[in-house]
Amino acid sequence: MNTTESNRARIAAIWESMAKGDTAPFADAMAEDFTWRMQGTTPWSGTYGGKADVRGRMLQALLEQFATPYRSVARRIHADGDFVIVEHEGDVTTKRGRPYNNKYCFVIRMRDGQMAELTEYFDSALVERELEPPPWA
Length: 137
Known about the structure:
Helix content: 25-40%
CATH architecture: Roll
Distance between the termini: 44 Å
CATH topology: Nuclear Transport Factor 2, Chain: A
Structural class: alpha+beta
Low-confidence stretches: none
Order of helices and strands: HHEEHEEEEH
Shape: globular
CATH class: Alpha Beta
Strand content: 35-45%
Number of helices: 4
Radius of gyration: 14 Å
Number of domains: 1
């Protein structure tokens, strides 16, 4: 299997788990020096550096706002060498009882089977309407 096929298969398997509400494979696929960039100008937008920062700060603050397990269904997965693009839709209810079903495009750079970088594009108006700002905003 070449690099493109193996990276696509790795990400496809992660999203199969995420569609069932199992986000552990996504977290496990982050390299220790993983970088996550959220585009836009929302309070959540910015760059998060390192697996510990992404998981311990950004994802923890985000997941604390949800009343149900977060699920995400991939609609399209495109791969070319080290890059994998995932168009997907989230499915979760906030603790305020409101749906937060954002649509995303993730551009992921892989390195040795792990996610090294992720750039996230999302519906920023939905973020500002349905999510509380993170504690550091």
